[in-house]
């Protein structure tokens, strides 16, 4: 992966700025603060790296949202108190964590707690340092064996992580990082996430030094890419991560939600989420190289506004079920076979000049449409 480009060619620098500006401009904050209670709670079972299947509680706390919300597909600011005065209340966060951990008789037992805040757990603007450590103490006292949080890598530094890990005591920590792509153009310009190769690799080293497990999210078909390019992007990203010794990866096929660049591109006929068969192809290709499981999330949702990856009406539900099953078992035999709707997929390399030119053209279309 090329190093973070201080020496970006001018057109790419312009493109990055245009996309980032648009992404921020499209975000809207609600008029009224949403109540200070988790916006999502769910229980399921997951397989730990040692093969053991355990219960998990997954909670998304109501927060003030991501402090770096530049990503072109991310809908989270639609769902939390982004931009609302008083939306970033540390007191409310702690209260929500306390309530989350207060075990009630009617809730399923769990050993893993996934605690998400629609952004970066270790960003001090989102969760102040002392509150991070206080949360670690609460989790440790609650008998949880494994805690999962998410963060951009630039916030995962030794001075921040060490006291947190110490406060967690026996609780094993996993940090999810949405790298999205190993390709610098795709990641930093098209997805427009603020992750450099340097900060990512430094965070991995800090985590390894403190016994923290990484889980890396990769997108399938970021905005501005074709399905054929998306497969290459996944394969090259998995290669890069494998080379770094990372085995915990999750593929996230893009869904299209309002108030995002992806949504505007879709409305203008310039982008569609990946075909489900593209997702299958990407998994097939990385599965051959990898002994590890590649899970899939985000394939269906209760959110009727968003547009999800799809295929034809005869196969789509079956493909989603098969992908979910594959996510649990990791058995290639669980991948769906075929359907007559499966489009011809021409897997192509990532030609940066051509992709940048296309992205600029697509932005022009949006501008002409008054976006
Ligand atoms: S960094 Fe994460 S939470 Fe923030 S905009 Fe990007 S995807 Fe969304
Ligand atoms: Zn079909």
Can you describe this structure in just a few lines?
This protein is of the alpha/beta class and 371 residues long.
Task: Explain how this protein is built.
With 371 residues, the chain is of the alpha/beta class. The protein is 39% helix and 14% strand. The longest helix has 17 residues, at 10-26. The radius of gyration is 20 Å and the shape is globular. Strand 3 (112-116), helix 3 and strand 4 (146-150) form a beta-alpha-beta unit. It has one domain: pyruvate-formate lyase- activating enzyme (Alpha-Beta Horseshoe). It has an 8-stranded mixed beta sheet. The model has no long low-confidence stretch (mean pLDDT 92). Bound molecules: iron/sulfur cluster and zinc ion. Zinc ion binds next to loops. The site of zinc ion has 6 residues, from loops.
Question: Which key terms come to mind for this protein?
Answer:
single chain, 371 residues, alpha/beta, pyruvate-formate lyase- activating enzyme, eight-stranded mixed β-sheet, 11 helices, 8 strands, globular, binds iron/sulfur cluster, binds zinc ion
């Amino acid at each position: 992966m090329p190093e973070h480009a201080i020496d970006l060619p001018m057109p790419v620098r312009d493109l990055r700025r245009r996309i980032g500006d648009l992404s921020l401009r499209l975000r809207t904050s609600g008029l009224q603060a949403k109540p200070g209670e988790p916006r999502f709670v769910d229980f399921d079972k997951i397989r730990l790296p040692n093969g053991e299947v355990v219960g998990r509680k997954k909670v998304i706390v109501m927060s003030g949202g991501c402090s770096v919300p530049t990503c072109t597909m991310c809908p989270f600011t639609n769902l939390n108190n982004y931009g609302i005065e008083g939306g970033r209340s540390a007191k409310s966060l702690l209260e929500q964590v306390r309530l989350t951990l207060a075990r009630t008789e009617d809730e399923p037992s769990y050993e893993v707690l996934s605690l998400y805040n629609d952004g970066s757990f270790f960003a001090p603007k989102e969760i102040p340092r002392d509150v991070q450590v206080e949360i670690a103490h609460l989790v440790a006292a609650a008998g949880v064996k494994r805690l999962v949080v998410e963060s951009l890598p630039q916030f995962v530094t030794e001075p921040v992580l060490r006291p947190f890990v110490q406060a967690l005591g026996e609780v094993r920590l996993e940090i999810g990082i949405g790298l999205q792509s190993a390709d610098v153009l795709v990641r930093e310009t098209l997805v427009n996430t603020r992750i450099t190769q340097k900060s990512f690799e430094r965070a991995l080293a800090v985590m390894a030094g403190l016994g923290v497990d990484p889980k890396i999210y990769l997108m399938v078909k970021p905005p501005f890419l074709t399905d054929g390019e998306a497969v290459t992007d996944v394969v090259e990203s998995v290669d890069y991560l494998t080379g770094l010794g990372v085995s915990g990866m999750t593929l996230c096929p893009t869904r299209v939600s309002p108030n995002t660049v992806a949504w505007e591109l879709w409305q203008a006929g310039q982008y569609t989420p990946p075909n489900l068969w593209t997702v299958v192809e990407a998994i097939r290709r990385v599965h051959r190289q990898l002994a590890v499981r590649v899970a899939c999330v985000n394939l269906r949702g209760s959110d009727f506004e968003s547009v999800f990856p799809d295929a034809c009406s005869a196969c789509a539900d079956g493909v989603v079920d098969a992908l979910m099953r594959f996510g649990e078992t990791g058995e290639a035999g669980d991948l769906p076979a075929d359907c007559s709707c499966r489009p011809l997929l021409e897997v192509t390399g990532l030609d940066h000049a051509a992709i940048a030119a296309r992205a600029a053209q697509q932005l022009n279309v949006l501008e002409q449409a008054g976006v």
